[in-house]
């Protein structure tokens, strides 16, 4: 866990928000530090890092952690591909980065339209 936190801190300024979020999502799942709740914690931490790095909570009616759960099969495959790259080299987060990019785009496209001002 120390390595995860140190890596995030060291790379905070130069990393793009999706790449850093993808790393947090993968690494927490890879470490698997808790008896229960590892996936929920990883998705929440991923989204938190994304929003803080982006400067605010991201708009959308269905947020990234929910979208990841919805697309669980694709998510598991992406995690497995990153794990495989760790052992076969070179390390490659692109499967998770691509999935998160797609889901973030979907989240941002599900914003509620602005409320209309009632006429007096």
Question: What structural keywords apply?
Answer:
120 residues, mainly alpha, Fic-like fold
Can you describe what's shown?
The protein has 120 residues and is mainly α. The protein has one domain: Fido-like domain (Fic-like fold), CATH 1.10.3290.10. The chain is built from 6 helices and no strands. It has helices spanning 2-11, 17-31, 38-54, 64-70, 72-88, 94-109. Helix 2 packs antiparallel against helix 3 (38-54) and helix 5 runs antiparallel to helix 6 (94-109). It is globular, with a radius of gyration of 16 Å. The mean pLDDT is 89.
Task: Kindly summarize this structure in a few lines.
The chain is mainly α.
Helix content: 55-70%
SSE-based structural type: mainly alpha
Total of DSSP H or I helical runs spanning 4+ residues: 6
Task: Classify the beta-strand content into a percent band.
Answer: under 5%
Low-confidence stretches: none
- CATH level 4 superfamily: Fido-like domain
Based on DSSP secondary structure assignment, what is the total number of beta strands? 0
Order of SSEs, N→C?
A: HHHHHH
Note the overall shape.
globular
Task: Give Rg in angstroms.
Answer: 16 Å
Second-tier CATH architecture = Orthogonal Bundle
Main pleated-sheet profile: none
Task: Produce the secondary structure layout.
Layout: H1 2-11, H2 17-31, H3 38-54, H4 64-70, H5 72-88, H6 94-109
């Amino acid at each position: 866990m120390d390595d995860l936190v140190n890596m995030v801190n060291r790379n905070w300024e130069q990393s793009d928000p999706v790449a850093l979020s993808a790393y947090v999502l993968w690494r927490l799942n890879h470490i698997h530090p808790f008896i229960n709740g590892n996936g929920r914690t990883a998705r929440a931490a991923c989204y938190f890092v994304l929003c803080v790095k982006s400067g605010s909570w991201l708009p959308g009616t269905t947020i990234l952690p929910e979208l990841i759960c919805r697309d669980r099969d694709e998510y598991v495959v992406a995690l497995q591909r990153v794990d495989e790259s760790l052992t076969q080299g070179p390390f490659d987060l692109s499967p998770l980065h691509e999935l998160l990019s797609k889901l973030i785009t979907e989240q941002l496209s599900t914003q509620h339209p602005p409320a209309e001002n009632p006429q007096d």
